């Protein structure tokens, strides 16, 4: 294990420089990094790993620390492309000033093959530190899940959770902030989810801020839940599309309606929800989604 306390004084206060782009298989063998400091609010691709470009990462944890960056900022991985992640976690508090900020992974991206994150979790708080409502994708586990516009593969999140508080303005979720063509199974979020002081908020949910489909893709939430309190009123303004489980659930306007599907099954939310327009105990706003055996 590594005690990274000393990183708070490295590089004139900027702390640790994220590990360079990695491709291949990384097995941490259950080891952890504690007290990690990364203070780079104008830098993209920030985390213990800056970027994973294919392969597998497993059995590694950042047990504590503070991590700040600009876009694609995560407690463990800033940007993960075409890779699987297993049995890993972060307890670091994460702050980002622009897009794609997550407690474990800032942004996930993939092309024509499905990839999986399995048995992972994040316990640190996630904060979007900006006064603009144009930046999006803030999540307790994953900030943003992006897909090639023509692909019909889905990214999987299985048996995973987030417990930290999450604050942001647009597409903010206790587990996932924003994404298209992804499937969540047997996962949950419990941390409070809220808007930023004085900023207009859109698409805030206890589990997912915004879930959508594109082209021939599929998105699902299965056997998952949120106990998060969702508050888009106390600090923020407007508060549109606010839900206990999902803020917005809809198919994309470019989607192939004959094959693409958006489904929520056997899922629930129990937290209090407050907003001003499009507010629901389960979902704030939905279009062309199938919901069954779910409740709030």
Q: What is this structure's SSE topology?
A:
Blueprint (H helix, E strand, L loop, with lengths): L1 E2 L18 E13 L1 E4 L9 E14 L2 E5 L3 E2 L2 E10 L2 E2 L2 E4 L4 E2 L2 E6 L5 E3 L2 E2 L3 E3 L9 E2 L2 E6 L7 E4 L2 E2 L3 E2 L2 E4 L2 E5 L1 E4 L2 E2 L3 E2 L5 E6 L2 E6 L4 E5 L2 E2 L3 E2 L5 E7 L2 E6 L9 E5 L2 E2 L3 E2 L2 E4 L2 E5 L2 E3 L4
Parallel strand pairs: 1-2, 2-4, 3-5, 4-7, 4-8, 5-9, 6-10, 7-11, 7-12, 8-13, 9-14, 10-15, 11-16, 12-17, 13-18, 14-19, 15-20, 16-21, 17-22, 18-23, 19-24, 20-25, 21-26, 22-27, 23-28, 24-29, 25-30, 26-31, 27-32, 28-33, 29-34, 30-35, 31-36, 32-37
Q: Helicity level, as a percent range?
A: under 10%
Kindly provide the radius of gyration, computed on alpha-carbon positions and rounded to a whole number of angstroms.
17 Å
* Tally of DSSP helical segments: 0
Secondary structure: number of strands: 37
| Terminal residue distance | 42 Å
State the secondary-structure class.
mainly beta
Shape annotation: globular
Quote the average pLDDT.
91
Strand composition percent: over 45%
How can the largest sheet be summarized?
22 strands, parallel
The poorly predicted ranges are: none
How would you describe this protein?
This protein has 296 residues and is mostly beta strands. Helices cover 0% and strands 54% of the residues. It has strands at residues 2-3, 22-34, 36-39, 49-62, 65-69, 73-74, 77-86, 89-90, 93-96, 101-102, 105-110, 116-118, 121-122, 126-128, 138-139, 142-147, 155-158, 161-162, 166-167, 170-173, 176-180, 182-185, 188-189, 193-194, 200-205, 208-213, 218-222, 225-226, 230-231, 237-243, 246-251, 261-265, 268-269, 273-274, 277-280, 283-287, 290-292. It has a 22-stranded parallel sheet that branches. It has an 8-stranded parallel sheet with strand order 3-5-9-14-19-24-29-34, with no helix packed on it. Strands 6-10-15-20-25-30-35 form a 7-stranded parallel sheet, with no helix packed on it.
């Amino acid at each position: 294990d590594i005690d990274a306390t000393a990183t708070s004084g490295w590089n004139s206060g900027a702390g640790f420089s994220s590990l360079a782009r990695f491709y291949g298989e990384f097995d941490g063998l259950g080891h952890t990094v504690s007290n990690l400091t990364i203070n780079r609010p104008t830098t993209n691709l920030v985390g213990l790993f800056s970027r994973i470009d294919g392969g597998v990462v497993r059995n590694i944890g950042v047990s504590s620390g503070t991590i700040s960056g600009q876009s694609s900022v995560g407690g463990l991985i800033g940007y993960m492309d075409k890779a699987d992640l297993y049995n890993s976690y972060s307890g670091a508090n994460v702050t980002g000033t622009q897009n794609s900020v997550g407690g474990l992974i800032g942004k996930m991206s993939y092309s024509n093959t499905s990839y999986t994150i399995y048995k992972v979790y994040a316990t640190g708080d996630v904060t979007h530190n900006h006064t603009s409502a144009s930046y999006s994708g803030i999540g307790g586990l994953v900030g943003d899940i992006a897909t090639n516009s023509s692909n019909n593969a889905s990214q999987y999140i299985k048996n995973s959770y987030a417990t930290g508080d999450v604050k942001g303005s647009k597409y903010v979720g206790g587990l996932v902030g924003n994404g298209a063509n992804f499937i969540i199974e047997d996962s949950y979020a419990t941390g409070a989810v809220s808007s930023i002081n004085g900023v207009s908020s859109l698409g805030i949910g206890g589990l997912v801020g915004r879930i959508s489909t594109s082209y021939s893709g599929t998105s699902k939430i299965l056997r998952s839940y949120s106990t998060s309190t969702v508050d888009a009123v106390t600090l923020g303004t407007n508060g549109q599309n606010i839900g206990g489980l999902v803020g917005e659930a809809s198919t994309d306007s470019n989607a192939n309606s004959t094959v693409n599907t958006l489904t929520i099954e056997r899922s629930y939310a129990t937290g209090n929800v407050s907003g001003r327009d499009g507010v629901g105990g389960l979902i704030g706003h939905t279009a062309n989604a199938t919901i069954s055996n779910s409740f709030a």
